[in-house]
Amino acid sequence: MNAQIPLNDVTDVSAGFKPRARAALADPRLRSNFRTAMDSLMTKRAAAFSDADERERLRELGNHIRARALSQLPDLLERLEANLTRNGVKVHWAETVSEANTIVLEIIQTHEARQVIKGKSMVSEEMEMNHFLGGQGIECLESDMGEYIVQLDNEKPSHIIMPAIHKNAAQVASLFEEKLGVEYTRDVDELIQIGRRTLRQKFFEADIGVSGVNFAVAETGTLLLVENEGNGRMSTSVPPVHIAVTGIEKVVENLRDTVPLLSLLTRSALGQPITTYVNMISGPRKADELDGPQEVHLVLLDNGRSQAFNDPELRQTLNCIRCGACMNHCPVYTRIGGHAYGEVYPGPIGKIITPHMVGLAKVPDHPSASSLCGACGEVCPVKIPIPDLLRRLREENVKRADPQHPVMRGEGSKYSARERLMWSGWKLMNTQPLLYRAFSFAATRLRGLRPASLGPWTEHHSAPTPAPRSLHDLAREHLEHPR
Amino acid sequence: MSELFYDAAPNATRVAPARELPRQYPEKPSDIYLFGTCVVDLFFPEAGMDSIRLLEREGIRVHFPQGQSCCGQPAYTSGYRGEAKAVARAQLPLFVEDWPVVVPSGSCAGMFRHHYQDLFAEEPAMLLEAQQLAERTFELAEFLLHVCKVSFVGTQQGQADPVRVALHTSCTARREMNTHLHGRELLAQLAGVERVEHDHESECCGFGGTFSVRMPDISGAMVMDKTTALRESGAHQVVSADCGCLMNINGSLEKQNQALRGQHLASFLWQRTGGKA
Predict the structure, then answer these.
(1) Are both B100 and B17 inside the same structural domain?
(2) Measured between CB atoms, does B119 come within 8 Å of chain A?
(3) CATH number, domain at B108?
(4) For A208, what's the count of Cα atoms within 13 Å in the CB-facing half-sphere?
(5) Residues B218 and B244 in one domain
(6) Does any domain span residue B17?
(7) Which of A399, A461, A483 to probe the B interface (max B CBs under 10 A)?
(8) Are B101 and B219 within one domain?
(9) Which terminus, N or C, of chain A has the lesser number of Cβ atoms within 10 Å?
(10) Shortest Cα distance from A23 to chain B (angstroms)?
(11) What domain range is B196 assigned to?
(12) Which part of the chain is the 4Fe-4S ferredoxin-type domain (chain A) (predicted)?
């Protein structure tokens, strides 16, 4: 059996982004797992959107729907609460993850519950719900196959749609062999059957089912949840109590809005025309119904989203429908994987949303970890201008913090008087033609004196050699004396 | 599907800009400005000179304002908006006449065409100037192809030894200026030139301006993959219309002691079509 991925290096948050990225880059198996998986996802998405005009019109519509929802967010949330309440769903509001966990715990305690089965939910990852409830003596079992694998190995998801994408089949086979005591097999179908058999019993034993939400429909008070494994339907309908957790930005105005958004979501994420299951949850079991939970709760979590909401440019971050296409197409994510980011949301979307959740100071390198190549913005189904937002976050990062009128928590975390001075010098040189001439004269005529080492640049490149004469010189001569 | 495209226009909040219509190109002008860019100025001046020669051969008078320096992109993408704006402010008045501004770099052209309007969003007078500059900014390959309507086909092509080339297009040039399409069409006109695809052709080379020095490990991994793909394509040489990428790719190839090198598209076109320096 192959050795374990040295994930400790990659997942250790205290090590910082750069060392984690370096460790991931040096891991050939991780590199190949991600490259293979991301290539396949890019191909699938491209095939699902074979008509470029239809794709672009749909993206535009998706952007408009999300923008319209955000433009009336407080109102829609009130309508959502009113309609859910009317449907018999209990709505809870949490500003922080700790409040959200407390709410969940109180519900669990009311029912004297000991076992929780979970459908996939990134918001519950934000809350570190498993860890929190585990500390309270409550077993919290993941039922999504990827999440289950990750939980079994004591890891965190490395991708928001495919949590265990950093592992190949051989690694999963070894994990199951070790943790479940089953015979080693690399047959993917067999591995999935092993997982399913183990989980099936747990659905019936669980006192509580927890799930996320893809879209919360204000008009009807409906919670929409997509999934491919059926575990979402089981988690939300078999246990007597269902607790859904979601972010406040997931609300949309009406059911009609969900049709194009669903199409964008499933095609962007996995290249699927639609997921195997589309659950529309609109309340607990009614008197004449035979199944479904007796109680349904929705926890609406802010966790920094309102900070993004308060700035018209940064608000676009909240358009996100969590498809993961930005990370699938990101040349940085493809190379370092999800764990190197050290936070719940990796990749381009992670880089623009995490600062609102944990403060820019905790993730100071995230905005810079992009070549601004634009691949993420190009594929985003709701047209979030991710490169523009990364550039904006760089501005917030390097500016001097403004305690009177802060834009975001942790702003100014990369403020450096030295770097600012350097850019002032750069500005002076590029705004004063005489200075520029003097500089380029020195750079070209004294090029023999250039240093052979140019810091980080020369780790991966030879030092560039300035030309003997600048274009300014050559052009002036040529244009004055045309041949 | 059409039923899905109902009017969902929002009443507030920021909305993505409408899709750009295909660009309408003007008649070939008598005069143009060349904005050389700072990287070309110091490291690839021949690319600038070959751009001038190609344009002059089309009967166009080229003007090179000596006051020009940098488009401001390095500061802009590093979060130093004020400094970027000051440099942009120094470039805008250089192009007094209403002539097209041709840039031998898709990335710097993209700065003129898309981002100056963001920098001056709150200064109406400057914004108008920025909009006018955007309208008349062309990336070199685009200008040669669609405004000059160059045709190398059937012309006497001096250096016609068969050669395989790989075309690398910078990300901003690709996504903001469609440069890869223009480059392909120009190369297709050349006798004896076979353009080969390389693996993950549309993927970034890892340059990203200050990204390459802020995140040297990640950038280094990207350029290593890019140069490997270029070498494995079987190309004899690399052609690109962006000198930032060329500095990155050539610097990496040189460090690896590889013989393959990249050349600016302008120089390649000029040499293949019988031009002499």
Answers:
(1) yes
(2) no
(3) 1.20.1050
(4) 25
(5) yes
(6) yes
(7) A461
(8) no
(9) C
(10) 10
(11) 163-272
(12) 310-339
Structural domain includes residue A391: no
- Map residue A211 onto helix, strand or coil: strand
Q: Can you give the residue range of the structural domain that contains A35?
A: 13-307
Secondary structure of A311-324 in HEC code, one letter for each residue: CCCHHHHHHCCCCC
Say whether both B218 and B126 belong to one domain: no
d(CA A376, CA A386) in angstroms, rounded, equals 7
Per-residue pLDDT of chain A (483 residues; tens, 9 = 90+): 333 333 334 445 557 999 999 999 999 999 999 999 999 999 999 999 999 999 999 999 999 999 999 999 999 999 999 999 999 999 999 999 999 999 999 999 999 999 999 999 999 999 999 999 999 999 999 999 999 999 999 999 999 999 999 999 999 999 999 999 999 999 999 999 998 888 988 999 999 999 999 999 999 999 999 999 999 999 999 999 999 999 999 999 999 999 999 999 999 999 999 999 999 999 999 999 988 999 999 999 999 999 999 999 999 999 999 999 999 999 999 999 999 999 999 999 999 999 999 999 999 999 999 999 999 999 999 999 999 999 999 999 999 999 999 999 999 999 999 999 999 999 999 999 999 999 998 888 888 777 777 788 999 999 888 999 999 999 999 988 765
C-alpha count within 13 angstroms, C-beta hemisphere, residue A473: 19
Q: Are B140 and B180 contained in the same domain? A: no
Look at B10 and A68 and tell me if their CB atoms are within 8 Å.
yes
Q: What is the DSSP letter of A448?
A: G
By C-alpha distance, the chain A residue nearest B199 is A39
Q: Do B219 and A475 touch (CB under 8 A)?
A: no
Which of A68, A391, A427 is opposite residue B77, by nearest beta carbon?
Answer: A391
Global pTM exceeds 0.90:
yes
Same domain, A300 and A433: no
